[in-house]
Structure formats: structure tokens, C-alpha cells
Amino acid sequence: MGQTADYVIVGAGSTGCVLAKRLAESGASVILLEAGGSDRTALVRKPGLIAVFHNIPQLKKKLDWGFYSAPQADALNRVIPQTRGKVLGGSGSINGMVFVRGNRRNYDDWAADGCAGWSYEDVLPSFKKMENWEDGGTDLRGEAGPIKVTRAKDITPATEAFIEALAETAGVKKNPDYNGEEQEGSSLFQQSAHGGLRYSSSVGYLDDHVDGKPALPNLTVTTGVTVARVEISKGRATGVRLTDGTTISASREVILSAGAFGSAQLLMLSGVGPAAHLAEHGIEVAADLPVGDNLHDHMFLPMSFLMKSARNKGTAPYFARGVIKESLRGNTWVGRSVFEGVGFVRSPQATDIPDLQIHVLPWGYPGPNQDAPIRHKVDPRPSLTLLATLIYPKSRGTLRLASADPTAAPVIDPNYLQAAEDRLLLLDGMELVRETMASKLISSGVSGELNPGPSYKDRAALEPEVLNRATTVYHPVGTVRMGADSDPRSVLTPDLRVRGIESLRVADCSIMPSITGGNTNAPAMMIGEHAAALILTP
């Protein structure tokens, strides 16, 4: 006999941990299922070790699903890594901890597109409830939430110089809080990290429970289990079946929080998706819906410049010394995000909000890309890497089943760079980076361009390199889109119910009709808070 709870949540990632905690706090019984294992390892919890995680395939394999894209027809048929966390906290346990809400216009656009209840004013309370901002609470920022948010500390002189130079070059202000009144500007990054600890949703929302404290005895967190499908009977979700044949029943609702890949895959395995595609795999159709469409993702293109003032060296001895110093006295680069600065600026194609994000990373970066599953070599000298980032891609792709086997990886085809506008914006970003690095405010500290390098001397030379160097920021969204009843593109109602199936919802970044303007981890956690409020409000 399997377990039973009021709510069964599949996926203990950035959204699922939040949702599980809030539903359990209401008094409901909750079972939270996670395919990965514990996040109680320094590799996850020490913020700066993310650099080690991404650089050593043997370590990455322990916490990553190991997905790759299908060959990308508009990006030289490259097969691009699609890193997703397989661990408590999900991708929020293996990301760079960059905390960006997005532009307020993003949420107003959702509401205008038929997602009632998701405007900026609607979601602002959910953002505030989640965060504990180092400057304290305001009308726009939260101060008592479980996720501690701090500015980047002990900034390298190289980053400081770039922030000044970008402000002048792009004609923007230095912005003390891009998550506040206005996003546009040149800023220090905000990070979901504090005191040498990563504040993932697992840390912020589950630590007291996982530690064995009796605060929420009605919440059961089960790791190391893989869900095969949602059990649907007479148009109603009754629970889930695991790959070992065990059934876990839900008396109220099943909620999928398995991410843009996992939630869409599980719906299709359960008979919810495009009817013709499901028929190809012998899956009986419970609801013919456009699951797996609307897949899109941020892309960035790294450019590295030799700068002694960037301080950090990509060598094993340097990493080892940092780990030792952190363990002895703390307050080193190992205890915070490796990213330091950011710019939200407008390209020549922009309208009324920034469409280009510049990530500032005071480390070297492998070039031309990181497609191969190997340990990539990085120039050991101190370098400043600027990552021009496409935050509003026009290209749209799909996620589809490879087979009816729930353990088989899905077919992930983001259709990167299919839209000419996407390639154009990345080129604009590269030119802005070069123009900024030539500014008198920073150029004296630059001893050379490493990547792409001086042989790519102008825009014409850079243009073909976009196809080889642009890569994912690991922010897939949109595959289980919410929208109005009249919208044939939508899978979910605005209260996140799956159309045509009772007692089944989805809550994670797959619900986004369009991607937010910036890193998606903060919006993912907000979705958890907002979904809980929708479920618990009569």
C-alpha cells in the first residue's frame, strides 16, 4: 500500500521546496518527491565551489541530469549541455546564485497576455515574502523571508572599473538596486548567498525540516525516487506512480514542479500533451494540449580580457588555497557567488526596457564553448569575462518524448538562434563589451583580449562566431504555458490548473508564457510562493 497525502509535489527544486513548505504550514499533509539526493555537501553549499562543479565532469555528474540539446540547426548543429540540478534544491543548488527578479514589465505583459493575477503588483507580495534583503524592507523589498539576499562583496578592481566604464559607455546610471524601482543601469550583482552559505530554496525552506526538527511533521521529503507518471482516473489526477511500481496517492492535488523539462515530460508520459505525438509512443491521450511547445532560454556569449586586477586564477593550486582559507577564516571568494557585477542596458533594437544583460565574471572562461563533456582548459592568468546576454529571445523550440520510458532523456530542442533578431542582439552585445573595454576608465588595466581575440577584428568577423560561441545560461522556460481560456497556446489556467484534468497543477518556470528579463531562479522561487497563495486562497 502506497503513501497518501493531501498534496503530492513532484520535484524539490527552486519552486517545489517553497510550495511544499507553504502548503504544509497551512496544516495540509504534503509529500515532496525528489529524484536526486541530499544537498548536504560543500560542493553545493559553499557558493564559490560552483566553479569547481562546472569544471570537473566527474563531480558534475553527481548532481546533474546530464541532458543535452538536440543538434541545433541554426548553431552549427551543436549539441549543447542542458545542465539541470538532480538534488534537493534542484537547479538552485548548482547555479551561480544570481538574484534577479526580472523587469516589472515582464509580469504586466503576462497579465496582459491573459494571465490574470500575475501582474507586477500581483506578484510583488510573493517576491517580498520570499526574500530577506540586506538593506531591509521597503515598499518593494522584503526583509523577513527565508532567502537571504546580499550584494556581491570584496569586489575585484577589474569589476569595479567595468561597472564605471559600462555606465559611461552605455549612457546609464550606476544602479544601487536593480530589483527595486528601476532595472536599467550598471550594478553590483545581488546573490542568494550570505555568510558563506548558498541560500537555495532547500536551505531557506527545508533545512529545519530535514534537520529532523518537528516543526512540520505533516511534510514528508523523499529523495532518490523517480516518478514514472501521474495517475489519472476519469479525468482526475489521483496520485503518481514511481518507476518501481509504487503508487503515492493525493487526496487533494498532484502538483508538478519538475522544471521546464521534467514537468512537460511527465505530463506527456501521463497522457497530457499533443495527441499525435503521444500516439507515436503508444500513450493513451487524457488531454490534447500543447505541452512541450514554447520552449525558450537565455543565451550569453563570453568575452575574456587579461586583467591583473581581476585577481583570480583558474588553476588547481589557486582553488585549493581558496578552499583552505575559507575553511580557516571564511570571507573568501569560495563563500560567495563567482559573479560580481551586472549591467541591464538597451541595444539599438530596444524599446522602453533593457533587452541586454551583461554578466561580469572576474575569472577566465573556456572558449569557444563548453559543449564537450570534458574538463575544459582555461587560461590561468587573471581575466575579466563579460557575458553579453540575450534576455528576450525570439526563437522558440520544443520538448518532446524520446520514448515512453520515463527514465529516457527527453528530446530538448530550444531552436537556438533561429531568429535573426537573436543573433543581431548578441552581436550588439559583443560590440558594446569591446567599446566599454576600450574606455579610458578601464583600458589601462587591460593587457589583451583572450576570447574571441584580436583576430576577430570587427563586426563582420564576429558575426559567424556567434553561432559557435553563444551558449545557454541554463534558464529554460515556457513548456507548460499558462494563459487565458481562449488561448490555444496555453496548457494551464492562470491558477496553474491543467486544462481538462482535475486536481492537477504545474508550478515552476515551465508555466511562463514569456521569459523574464534576467536570471530565472528568483522568479522560480516567487512562483512557489505565488502558487501556494493561489492554492490556499478560497
Short description:
The protein has helices at 16-25, 42-45, 50-55, 57-63, 104-112, 120-130, 157-170, 201-210, 259-269, 275-280, 316-329, 420-437, 459-469, 521-536, and strands at 4-10, 30-34, 131-133, 147-151, 185-188, 190-191, 193-194, 197-198, 219-223, 227-233, 236-242, 247-256, 272-273, 287-288, 299-306, 341-345, 356-361, 383-390, 398-400, 411-413, 448-451, 471-472, 504-506. It has 538 residues and is an alpha/beta fold. It folds into two domains: 1-145 and 198-260 and 477-538, FAD/NAD(P)-binding domain (3-Layer(bba) Sandwich); 153-188 and 299-390 and 418-469, Cholesterol Oxidase, domain 2 (2-Layer Sandwich).
Task: Outline the structure in words.
- By secondary structure, the chain is an alpha/beta fold.
- The protein has 2 domains: 1-145 and 198-260 and 477-538, FAD/NAD(P)-binding domain; 153-188 and 299-390 and 418-469, Cholesterol Oxidase, domain 2, CATH 3.30.410.
- 27% of the residues lie in helices and 20% in strands.
- It has 14 helices and 23 strands.
- It has helices spanning 16-25, 42-45, 50-55, 57-63, 104-112, 120-130, 157-170, 201-210, 259-269, 275-280, 316-329, 420-437, 459-469, 521-536, and strands spanning 4-10, 30-34, 131-133, 147-151, 185-188, 190-191, 193-194, 197-198, 219-223, 227-233, 236-242, 247-256, 272-273, 287-288, 299-306, 341-345, 356-361, 383-390, 398-400, 411-413, 448-451, 471-472, 504-506.
- The strands form 6 sheets. Strands 1, 2, 9, 10, 11, 12 and 23 form a 7-stranded mixed beta sheet that branches. Strands 5, 15, 16, 17, 18, 21 and 22 form a 7-stranded antiparallel beta sheet that branches. A 3-stranded mixed beta sheet has the order 3-4-6.
- A hairpin with a 2-residue loop joins strand 10 (227-233) and strand 11.
- The longest helix is centred in the last third of the chain and has 18 residues, at 420-437.
- The radius of gyration is 22 Å and the shape is globular.
- The mean pLDDT is 96.
- Keywords: FAD, Flavoprotein.
- Residues 85-108 form the Glucose-methanol-choline oxidoreductase N-terminal domain.
- This is GMC family oxidoreductase N-terminal domain-containing protein.
- InterPro entries: FAD/NAD-bd_sf, GMC_OxRdtase, GMC_OxRdtase_N, GMC_OxRtase_C.
- Its cofactor is FAD.
